[in-house]
Amino acid sequence: MSPTSAIAIKGGHLIDPGTGIDAPKDILLKDGRVAEVAAPGKLKQAAGAQILDAKGLVVAPGLIDIHVHLREPGQGYKETIATGTAAAAAGGFTAVAAMPNTIPVNDSPEITRWMQSPERGASVRVFPIGAATRGSKGETLNDFAALKAAGCVAVTDDGHPILKDSVMRDTLAAASRVGLSVIQHAEDTRMTVGASMNVGPVAFRLGLRGMPVEAESGLVERDIRLVQDLRSDKVHLHVAHTSTSKAIEAVRQARRNGLRVTCEVAPHHFLLTDEHVGHYDTHCKMNPPLRSAADRDAMLEAIMDGVVDAIATDHAPHASHEKEVEFERAPNGITGLETALGLCLAWLHREAKMPLGRVLSLLSAQPAAVLGLRGRGTLAVGSFADVIVFDPNVEWVYRAAEGKSKSRNTPFDGWTMLGKVRWTVSEGRVVYGN
Amino acid sequence: MTAVRRKSNTPPVSASPFPYNPGSLLSVNDLSLDELNHILERATALEKQDPLTRDRILIKRRVALLFYEASTRTRTSFELAAKALGADTALVSNLSSSIEKGESLKDTGLNLRALGAEAIILRHSLSGGAWLLEESTRLPVLNAGDGMHEHPTQALLDLRTILAHLVPNSGKSVGKKVGPIAGPETLAGVTVTITGDILHSRVARSNMLLLPRLGAQVLLCGPKELLPEIAVAETPGVRIERDFEAALSRSRVAMMLRIQAERLAGLQLDLDEYKAGYQLTGERLARLAPKAVVMHPGPIIRGLEITGGVADGPQSAILEQVTHGLAIRMAVIERALGAGRTEKRV
Predict the structure, then answer these.
(1) Which of A314, A386, A391, A413 is the catalytic position?
(2) Which of A46, A299, A400, B95 is the most exposed, having the fewest neighbouring CB atoms within 10 Å of its CB?
């Protein structure tokens, strides 16, 4: 990504949770970095810069999604790095962290570098997440130092959670030695054999086997015990897509005990319940599954009261033919990059009255902090020129068919979104304009 | 920091578009009481009709039977029912078709439609199969059992069997007025116990949705592994009674279910213990429910959930159920193809 000429974004209202600015400001981007932030009309170095007129709009750090599946290498029919990052840009994201469950699994520096190569045509910054174990088989640890040197920002076996205590302990210890976070998709898969949705009355009524909440919370509790046993403040456990009240409580308690445990929640888990599965809607099939209303409400409360560190989408594109099958046969996952901001503004900001700055923080500064992405998620001078300009008041209807992602598997098709992205600037380049 | 508690303003669950086709029968919940009565009336009328005029009703109409699971009663019954009305039937089973080559349910359905099928009768091993097929083809789909989910025609034939035994005069003229066959009070005071592998049973699910709508009290009985507490979390008129003998002593109908070994998914069960607790024996029946009607959707496993003596005994309605099935299936096939309608359905 080569930086272009300077861009001056003028007349907007700047909200930067990183520096605490919430005021009318102009901002100058130069050489891929934030060069200057000044009172309206007071930029000193803006001569010759391209002007973006942000009058009436909000200017904020580019959003960061620390949980996406870009499907490359190996499954380009679902998504490519180019289409996935185009969807990211359209959704206001300027950086995404890509899960390693590609084909082959990203367990090597070669694949990590391949994903970041300019030939992939990425619109926004891609941070690969490396597999914790060889082939994500949960047995042999990968070379974390080499993965980090190649560009990985964390390790995980994602959909193949590490069940063996010894392997998870070694993973946490080894990752901490090289300064990487360990992300766990918390699911005790021994408790979810054959299950395709949340356990409960809805699953019983639909004749589907259910995943108990303990399959999630039990593994989170186990992982926290391992973090505690390691007695090192360098160990960082990040719980992916938390979906149950019990798991949130475990994270909350770990935090009280001074452990470095963070967690993310996906929009669908604070918005939808297992009732939305309706009559076997495979666009409501994901893992972790949509939970009970009580768990859904608990996710919302945990976001409101600050236990949740980040909103992450778990963007998981699948081709339509893969989802147009029997519910139990359909793959897990929904897309999320193009709906996250609109849903968060509609339901966290407008409905739940969360201040705009906090919503943006959950989507930028805080996820950057979780993965230690320096110079991201803030508009402080010198940081990367990752910026979004959006109208916070526009309502619009999301149409999956008009999206940038290659796939259409979303339960939010036809939903009303709040807040429309006008421009997305990634490292000084306008990568999306509307 | 104060948590903002929000109990309202969450996204609503949108109304179901199913069934797309008014001739479909996916769930017993698709049927209003009017439609239910219509089916029961037509079942009786068709059963009585001269076979030589009956087979003009759907003459040369095309009905496909799509079976992804082994079946004796349901398949034969649907096939004979369609043929009794004069329809042409084509049977496609997963073991002798392109399904084995990996053809999807959607594509199989579209191809049957292209071959002229006007309705599809589907038995599927996975829950929700009938919904997928209906959405894909928009044809009338008759759910002949989907996974662990529903088996609506079984519930209808069970209802017809129960009515024949317990309310023989329902729907018959009383003075000048002809009452409905099935109303909200028709089975008031009747307790039906369903015993056995409730968890894996589509028959149980359809019956527990249907029978309480006619006023019946449904008791579910079985060990925790086969009957989780959540089974009754959202079903009014249905309760759990784990003590089989206590349930039996209150029952006018004892419906027994087979343990579905093919769906146990690793669950270990002590069969001797199960038999001691839940087997319907001649001794238990004579002592606790000497007047109850004994039912079973089949296949029965003699000596496991029911003794051979009970199955063959005077209280058994098991084979009557099979016969009622033929009449019910004639009525729902006729309904699927829009024939034989005496009044506009609501």
Answers:
(1) A314
(2) B95
Counting residues of chain B whose pLDDT is more than 70, the rounded percentage is 93
Note the CATH architecture for domain B152-323.
3-Layer(aba) Sandwich (3.40)
The residue of B4, B7, B68 whose CB has the most chain A CBs within 10 angstroms, and thus the best one to mutate to test that interface, is B4
Q: What is the mean pLDDT of residues B212-225?
A: 96
Does the active-site annotation cover A314?
Answer: yes
Chain A residues touching residue B231 (CB < 8 angstroms): 204
Question: Per the CB < 8 Å rule, is A305 touching B3?
Answer: yes
Q: Which residue from B131, B151, B164, B167 is spatially nearest to B20, judged by alpha carbons? A: B131
**For A208-260, how does the pLDDT look when each residue is reduced to its tens digit (9 = 90+)?**
999 999 999 999 999 999 999 998 999 999 999 999 999 999 999 999 999 99
Q: Cα separations (Å) of A390 from A26, A66, A253, A343, A424?
A: 15, 21, 37, 14, 9
pLDDT in tens, B306-316: 999 999 999 99
- ipTM, two decimals, is 0.93
User: Which of these, A219, A223, A197, lies nearest to A208 by C-alpha position?
Assistant: A197
Domain with A28, as residue range(s), is: 7-59+384-405+416-433
Any idea how long chain A is?
A: 434
Q: What is the C-alpha R_g of chain B?
A: 21
Instruction: Report the alpha-carbon distance of residue B74 to residue B203 in Å, rounded.
Output: 12
Question: Best mutation site among A192, A206, A271, A361 for testing chain B: the one with the most B CBs within 10 Å?
Answer: A206
Task: Please list every residue in chain A whose beta carbon sits closer than 8 Å to the beta carbon of residue B124.
Answer: 326
Do the beta carbons of residue A280 and residue B132 sit within 8 Å? yes
Residues A149 and A217 grouped into a single domain: yes
**A71/A40 same-domain check:** no
**CA end-to-end span of chain B:** 54
**What are the distances in angstroms from CA B343 to CA B111, B174, B202, B233?**
33, 22, 31, 37
Residue of A nearest to B147 (CA): A207
Q: Does a structural domain hold residue A411?
A: no
Judge whether A304 and B4 are in contact, CB under 8 Å. yes
Helices (H), A305-347: 320-323, 340-343
For chain B, percent helix, then strand, then coil, each to nearest 5? 40, 15, 45
